[in-house]
Structure prediction request, 1316 residues.
Amino acid sequence: MKLFEYMGKEIFASYGINVPRGKMVETPEDASTVAKEINGTVVVKSQILAGKRGKGGGIKFADTPEEAARVAGEILSMTVQGHKVEKVLVEEKIKIDQELYLAITIDGAAKKPVIIASSQGGMDIEEVDDEFIAKQHVDVSVGVYPYLGREICRRIGLTGPVSKEFNRLLGLLYKIFREKDAELVEINPLVISGDTLIAADSKMTIDDDALFRQKGMPYVEDRTSIEKKAHDLGLAFVELGGNIAVMANGAGMSMGSLDTLVHYGGKPANFLDAGGGTGIEGTTKAIELLLETNPKVIFINIFGGITRCDDVANALVTVKKNKEIPVPVVIRLVGTNEEEGVKIIQENGMEAYKVMQEAAAKAVEIANAG
Amino acid sequence: MKLFEYMGKEIFASYGINVPRGKMVETPEDASTVAKEINGTVVVKSQILAGKRGKGGGIKFADTPEEAARVAGEILSMTVQGHKVEKVLVEEKIKIDQELYLAITIDGAAKKPVIIASSQGGMDIEEVDDEFIAKQHVDVSVGVYPYLGREICRRIGLTGPVSKEFNRLLGLLYKIFREKDAELVEINPLVISGDTLIAADSKMTIDDDALFRQKGMPYVEDRTSIEKKAHDLGLAFVELGGNIAVMANGAGMSMGSLDTLVHYGGKPANFLDAGGGTGIEGTTKAIELLLETNPKVIFINIFGGITRCDDVANALVTVKKNKEIPVPVVIRLVGTNEEEGVKIIQENGMEAYKVMQEAAAKAVEIANAG
Amino acid sequence: MAIIINENTNVVVQGITGNQGKFHTRQMLAYGTKIVGGTSPGKGGQEVEGVPVFDNVYAAMEQVRVDASVLFIPAPFAKDAAFEAITAGIKVLVIVTEHIPVHDEMDIIDLASRKGTTVVGPNTFGIVSSGKCKIGIPPNQFFVPGSIGVVARSGTLTYEIVGNLTANGFGQTTVVGLGGDRVVGLSFVDVLEKFEKDPETQAVVLVGEIGGNAEEEASLFIKKMTKPVVAYIAGKSAPPGKRMGHAGAIIERGKGTFNAKVEALTAAGASVATLPFEVPELLREKLK
Amino acid sequence: MAIIINENTNVVVQGITGNQGKFHTRQMLAYGTKIVGGTSPGKGGQEVEGVPVFDNVYAAMEQVRVDASVLFIPAPFAKDAAFEAITAGIKVLVIVTEHIPVHDEMDIIDLASRKGTTVVGPNTFGIVSSGKCKIGIPPNQFFVPGSIGVVARSGTLTYEIVGNLTANGFGQTTVVGLGGDRVVGLSFVDVLEKFEKDPETQAVVLVGEIGGNAEEEASLFIKKMTKPVVAYIAGKSAPPGKRMGHAGAIIERGKGTFNAKVEALTAAGASVATLPFEVPELLREKLK
Prediction:
């Protein structure tokens, strides 16, 4: 789950990391009020869950409260990087001596957190040459101590009082990373302003799987309504715009299903990973969800492991009993409790395929025929 | 540094460990007030830095506020286990279904914390057979997780809701142990009272070497005034009551000096480890301290390593210059900067021994002659 | 021979009294797995499917030799259960549970690496030494002995491919599910190294996915292997996954796409199937 | 041969720009120790006693092979410095600093054991491979080559005993100071094992103290040793130390007293001196 910039900054500030004075507002009037309080030039930043807002016109400066209201009004009516702007952050403009980059994320290959730092922060960090970027893995059972911060400072050429401040900030950022179950905490730019360091931006992603224990963490919705419904059911769902509704179990299997449908000339309406062991009720709701995409055909591709074929079959029968399914269902069913599942399907007047490519070809045929 | 029972219980309570309702008081009147608030039978416990208070008469029950005042008065005039009582803890009397024992301390041999638990807590825990005691080492880089608590419960035969509560409490106690730089946290007895666990006593020792970072930790004085003075100078000092004042550098050397003096028939006045690298000023103060024990002779035994012989010699000369030293000084001086040190001693009209046993024998001779 | 587990592996099921635990204990026993015990706190002394239940792994190991453990424990409690197994001295730990917080996964793998425990998963179907021992959740009937080693990131897709292999006469030595999460105990390279050394394994099938750079790293090792490798990468037509800010870009530097993976694998000498069911045919060609 | 360090050990001094660091760097150089660098944050590029100063251990190891490090760092910062040395890959770490918080000591030793670093100390005088390499703070003149291995808990008392040995013609192979704190990196047994294997060491002198049970544990190993051992235990007439509640009693169970230690050592075949200066005489008898 991504956090808005202002949320990340609130977390930073609560841990003792310097952020610019400012406040999130949702109206031009409030923007003016905040600008008055700040009493100086402010920056008005669109709050969306995407980067490169500056290039999209989503960040503007204002010298007076009136101007702040005006640019806030402009930005609040914009769509930046495909995201409709509903909130802006109004902040003091800070003096920038140098822009650093600092992030902590997870390196899957190393199976560890990795700190990434550069003396050349700012918008073009992705283009910065490797030699100006220090990467330092962290042992979770050791953590981040000052020696590690000193080593990073040495490698990015940071010295003097600012390096001490950097070290303090790094320790706090790692604390946030661990305590908030973050997958990413990123400050770009981390601004050197005199002897202090100020987090001029924040990017944080919280592990969805850890939200159950992140009490007090604001919930940020970044899904379409149907994706949200799927998520609430514990299903991974992405809309794709085609006409073949797809349900499979397992992310790999779901991707394999899409690949096969596309190979035969089909257009998948969605990606839906029903996961493992969802049970009858969950599977029922997954099928109901598929119907909401108004497909021409439903393609169900199950290779049962932790998922049992009889559960899937019973779910399909349940949906059929509760309401008419208006489109054909092509179902492929093998694996755990396959015999029982196929029997249930057949008893209810449907056919169950055994071979994936045959089922996929059939689904494409129906979709493209209609 | 040992903490009084009531201090340990305040820490316990602040971490969410149940303790009996109650309050520390210093007068019979306040004892009566607390007993009124508790509104039931109370226990009045002497607050001293020693165990076995019950056997010494330092713990008494009272059914009314008047009785609480009376027994508090009695206890406040007592000396228990050699400690003058100045504070008492007045607490509700709790229902005791069973007494457990739980402690976390440091096992020097294993170089790790060790959890010690028993289903047979109470006064005679030291006599309990090993089979009723569970010892479990903790990796500091792993910490205490519920699985460890479950394993301890299994080994001491604790089941049901109380075992869940025990597990919760163990996690908190380990947190206290680490966060407070404790050398020992001990709850004996840990009382099962219905489905809850109550810490009916507390024993905590904080690492003296970590007090610099234990902001907010109350300071508890457990030294004689001369020992306190020594401690403030960074010296390890214990009064022993004899007539040969002893100063050596290093704990082992200090013990070896005592052993040698005793071997020759001497009576050491004190144990004083001047430590390593104390420098001129510290050494000067150490010598001044020795004079306060009114010895018949001062025996200084230095084998210089991090301590430099010239520093010790200069310190002795400084003391001599500032005030007359009223007793003979026998000094033995070898090791780092030995030549310079010996020269300084000789220039100031004293003699420096090279061999420890000769110096020790001389000191004993002077002490026993006088 | 087989890798990681074999016919003598004694297995404990953590969480044996839950629904999934019970069901898959029955399935594993039916496959021939030597399940010597299960654990469930407070239920020591009971039996599930004829298997004795212990209060914890420590208690089980007091009674019987245990080589491996499989976790059927809900995600919030999985780290604790894994720590129990690792500190008790389990040498192979299979974690089926999905949705374990990634910080917990890092903690588990850190501790395991220190204690010398091999972690299969989390979010894995498990590991099957075909005909000898199955630890995990895949359906029994598709896993038959043979000479193909299979290593995969995803679950059901692997059943699909293994099913196709078996239908085409290719039995397996060992089938290893690395797990679908970003942080898992084993890498492709870890398993490929073992297959390369295993005398019974003649060829290897690698089932990958878009995202991350595990397949690119595997390619570097495949280049040095003497045994043929056939790969399938799922996700050619999948929507792009979420990106981890600039940090993700800095780490990946262009890796992770379908094309990057296929190119790396092809350059390393592996055959890459376009669709899952093409794997047996490519394998036949490679083994000619 | 020598144990732990030898004439080829390259040493870095952490905290070389402080007073103690400077003084003992000079002393160690005078003894012949190969000091290849020192560290002091922000002072990289300077020189102390002709030794190059680096910003940290990582920077030093980029320039030169480093085998061992010695810490002259104030107690509050010692853990951080030790972690730096250990994670940088130092294999022998000598921690002279006293008054390090005991929880920090446990953390240091835990990390060191995971990374394969030998920790001498904390609160130690160090280690001397006589005539070859001195890492730490003992005075140079008493440590001369010979065939006696010395292992001790306390510092100056050891100089006393080593001085007596040297004066009596007994040079030393290696003199190891375990450190005076309750939690230290090496135990008597760790060092006795090395002396037992070291072909140049003919006999061992063990210098112990009352408290703890390190000497009792050492006795169990001494029983199995082929080489003679002479011991001295300080504290026969010392005041009783502080006791750690019931927990201390439960751990010690009667061990730790002067008598318990002398009995254990004697029963194991060691000669125990009553006073420090008796050690050479007992050694002479043992070696007859």
About this structure: The radius of gyration of chain C is 19 Å. Chain C has a mean pLDDT of 93. Chain C has two domains: 10-120, 138-286.
